[in-house]
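Pipeline run #58 for the internal structure catalog. This entry was flagged by the ingest filter as a single-chain record with no existing model, so it goes straight to prediction. Upstream metadata was stripped on purpose; only the residue string is passed forward. Reviewer on rotation: M.T. Logging verbosity set to normal.
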Amino acid sequence: MPAYARPSLDELTALLEKFIADDPDECQLRRATPPNPPEKLPLLSDTASSDPESLLTLNEQFSAALGKSLVPGERAQAWALLPKWHNPKKGAQAFVVTVHRVFLLPDHSFEVSLAQVATLEYTSSILESCLAMNLIEGGTSRRKVIFFPYPAQDSFRTCFEAARRCMAVLPLT
């Protein structure tokens, strides 16, 4: 190393030292594993509803539909309600995230394997809130979007975070 490069090397070393852990043994690679599913999914909620009885019925309906939709050994990581008033034509729906896929209940009109998702986007604003997925299928890219009402942002944010954690441990294809 030439002597004139020494100050630059010292500067680079000082910059990189900030990224070293206090305990060098903590710098080992760890195997990524899927996140543990919650013991019990939180109840689906519609913040615009003032009728708790209708929400109880809705939760019972979607809990039964979820049980039928999951394959053996599959567990839901998170879910969020798309209330009936948001899209009256389709009625109430629940967006569900599992370790391997995302889908809509009760009719599975939207079902995507997380292995196909190239990017996952979350947008939440009063004007437009959505979860968008860019998918790779057969070498081509396409985009699928789930629009949700702004009051449901917390539960959809939970779904987004659960999907990102699940995508982080998928094997490369």
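catalog note: The chain has three helices and seven strands.
catalog note: The chain has a mean pLDDT of 86.
status: ready for reviewer M.T.
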